[in-house]
Amino acid sequence: MNTITIKIEAPELVEALNHLASAICTGQHNIQSVETIQELKAESVKQEVPDEIESTTYSIEDVRAAFSDYAKARGKDKAKAILAKYGANKVTAINSKDYQAVMQDIRGE
Q: Theoretical Cys-Cys bridge with 36: which of 12, 21, 32, 95, CB 3.0 to 4.6 Å?
């Protein structure tokens, strides 16, 4: 029989599971109020965006150059598939608010 070992690095989850196991074994139940749990969730969800990650704006020239490079490297059919995804038949027909997403698709992000 083969054994699969999974390593999860989530100290908060491990701590919570250990507390739960301990409570079950000892019969002690320390139940927190819903409000406390929601506060803890809210604190764990809060994250700051690093300064180096900024929203990049692209011009039509940026998108056109990226498409040209993409078509040369990956082929025109794949480039046309990205255009079709955004409802365009040519680069200039892409809505400017989609430039960010288009560039991510081109880069494979």
A: 32
Quote the Cα angle for 18-21-26, to 5°: 120
What pLDDT, on a 0 to 100 scale, did the predictor assign at position 12?
A: 80
Residue among 84, 89, 86, 80 nearest 99 (CA): 86
* pLDDT reading at 84 higher than 90: yes
More confident site: 56 or 39: 56
Q: Are residues 101 and 72 in the same domain?
A: yes
1 assigned to some structural domain? no
Query: Nearest 5°: CA angle at 57, between 96 and 99?
Result: 35
- CA–centroid distance for 94 within its chain: 23
Residues contacting residue 57 through CB under 8 Å, at least 6 positions apart: 99, 100
> How many domains is the chain partitioned into structurally?
2
Whether residue 62 contacts residue 56, with contact meaning beta carbons closer than 8 Å, is answered with no
